[in-house]
């Protein structure tokens, strides 16, 4: 996306109308008057940045590209677009005028700008963390707090809300930045340019800057990481490819939303497939005499694995309500990783349906957090009344045998 955004500057043509980087880049090639000299300068700058970075140059490759490209244009007289005139002073700080009668009209727009700015800045910080070799990682809270202070200060100077920029951050890191001091020196250098070096900086060809960003975009690609993601699982590869396509075809913010949504769907799918109900023959692991073994013919034990939530609650419900021909069903819940309200309601429905068949339900291994959710959903009303919740499997089975013995005796 960073590279596609530089195509109009690289070709030295006016930026065509378009809502995304791919559309703008596509329409740019159909514009008349492409400057071949600018293309040569831009591609040369991109090649120089990639080459010097590969060779491990101690001088930042972007500085070498800017200086060499500018000098080449100045001494050769190439007709290419340059940055042009820049302001020579800073605006005087003042409080902006705010009409209370129209303040409410800006509230929703301000929230939207805040959300987009926060997402873009955090993405920029995440990119920097992935590119930098330093073990120090960015703090999202500090990033957003600092951005808020900066936006408030900028408004006093007539500035607009801004975000952390992925392109400039990438150039900064690839140029050797390792700490936050790089941002401070970046600001000081911009101040120096505005006050003293504006005429010199104005002579830098825009195609050279575009080439630097294109070269930086190429260096940002971690081909090894891309290969590992594509080879990992089909779901991870699908999320990666769809997010990359939406980033180029639509917008970065939309791509993040689509990627999160798709990843959530894949995670739910994985949870559903990893959840199961397993019938256990626990009598084989217990030292039982013949009388107890006959009693165990009327007891079945099921182990619930995975997550019991809205995505697979109906599967648990369908499987367990089909049980018949026994007196007691023991549900081992110690292997459940999580349970939500839908899962708790499914447990309550299972207990009620089995009670209609005159089958009692014992629960074993219920964690406190799970029990709290089950109690709030009134799923344990029947089992708590009969004291049918146990911590140990042996206690649950001993109580189940006693229950079966009483039931069989009463039926004679």
Structure description:
The protein has 412 residues and is an alpha/beta fold. The protein contains 19 helices and six strands. It has helices spanning 2-5, 7-11, 21-28, 36-55, 61-76, 100-131, 140-156, 166-174, 181-201, 206-220, 223-232, 234-249, 252-274, 290-296, 313-320, 341-356, 368-376, 381-385, 393-411; strands at 276-280, 299-308, 328-332, 336-339, 360-364, 389-390. Strands 1, 2, 3, 4, 5 and 6 form a six-stranded mixed sheet that branches. Helix 4 (36-55) packs antiparallel against helix 5, helix 4 packs across helix 10 and helix 6 packs parallel to helix 8. The protein is elongated, with a radius of gyration of 33 Å.
- Compute the average pLDDT: 79
Q: Could you tell me the strand content as a percent range?
A: 5-15%
Extended strand count: 6
Global structural class: alpha/beta
Give the distance, in angstroms, between the N- and C-terminal Cα atoms.
79 Å
Let me know the largest β-sheet.
6 strands, mixed
Residues in helices, as a percent range:
55-70%
The number of domains is: 3
Count of separate DSSP helical elements: 19
SSE order, as H and E? Answer: HHHHHHHHHHHHHEHEHEEHEHHEH
Shape verdict: elongated
Low-confidence stretches: none
Write a brief structural summary.
Helix content is 63%, strand content 8%.
Keyphrases for this structure?
Transcription Regulator spoIIAA, 3 domains, 6-stranded mixed beta sheet
Question: What topology emerges from the helices and strands here?
Answer:
Elements: H1 2-5, H2 7-11, H3 21-28, H4 36-55, H5 61-76, H6 100-131, H7 140-156, H8 166-174, H9 181-201, H10 206-220, H11 223-232, H12 234-249, H13 252-274, E1 276-280, H14 290-296, E2 299-308, H15 313-320, E3 328-332, E4 336-339, H16 341-356, E5 360-364, H17 368-376, H18 381-385, E6 389-390, H19 393-411
Parallel strand pairs: 2-3, 2-4, 3-5, 5-6
Antiparallel strand pairs: 1-2
Helix pairs in contact: 4-5, 4-10, 6-7, 6-8, 8-10, 11-12, 12-13, 15-16
């Amino acid at each position: 996306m960073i590279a596609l955004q530089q195509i109009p500057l690289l070709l030295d043509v006016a930026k065509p109308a378009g809502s995304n980087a791919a559309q703008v880049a596509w329409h740019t090639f159909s514009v008349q008057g492409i400057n071949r000299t600018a293309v040569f300068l831009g591609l040369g700058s991109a090649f120089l940045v990639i080459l010097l970075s590969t060779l491990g140059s101690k001088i930042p490759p972007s500085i070498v590209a800017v200086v060499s490209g500018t000098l080449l244009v100045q001494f050769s007289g190439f007709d290419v677009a340059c940055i042009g005139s820049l302001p020579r002073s800073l605006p005087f700080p003042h409080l902006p005028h705010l009409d209370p009668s129209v303040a409410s009209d800006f509230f929703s727009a301000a929230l939207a700008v805040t959300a987009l700015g926060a997402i873009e800045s955090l993405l920029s910080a995440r990119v920097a963390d992935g590119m930098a070799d330093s073990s120090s990682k960015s703090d999202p809270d500090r990033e957003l707090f600092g951005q808020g202070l900066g936006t408030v200060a900028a408004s006093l100077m007539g500035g607009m809300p801004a975000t952390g920029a992925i392109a400039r951050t990438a150039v900064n890191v690839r140029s050797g930045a390792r700490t936050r001091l790089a941002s401070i020196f970046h600001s000081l250098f911009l101040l120096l340019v505005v006050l003293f070096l504006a005429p010199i900086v104005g002579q830098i060809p825009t195609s050279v800057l575009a080439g630097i960003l294109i070269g930086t975009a190429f260096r940002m690609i971690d081909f090894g990481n891309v290969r590992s993601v594509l080879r990992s699982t089909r779901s991870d590869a699908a999320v990666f490819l769809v997010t990359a396509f939406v980033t180029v075809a639509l917008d970065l913010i939309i791509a993040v939303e689509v990627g999160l949504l798709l990843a959530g769907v894949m995670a739910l799918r994985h949870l559903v497939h990893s959840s199961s109900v397993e019938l256990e023959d626990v009598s084989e692991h217990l030292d039982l005499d013949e009388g107890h073994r006959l009693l165990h013919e009327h007891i079945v034990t099921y182990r619930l694995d995975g997550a019991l939530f809205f995505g697979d609650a109906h599967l648990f419900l369908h499987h367990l309500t089909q049980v018949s021909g026994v007196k007691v069903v023991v549900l081992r819940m110690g292997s459940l990783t999580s349970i939500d309200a839908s899962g708790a309601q499914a447990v309550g429905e299972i207990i009620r349906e089995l009670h209609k068949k005159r089958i009692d339900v014992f629960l074993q291994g219920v964690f406190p957090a799970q029990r709290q959710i089950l109690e709030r959903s009134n799923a344990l009303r029947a089992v708590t009344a009969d004291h049918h919740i146990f911590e140990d499997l042996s206690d649950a089975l001993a109580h189940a045998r006693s229950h079966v013995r009483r039931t069989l005796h009463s039926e004679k």
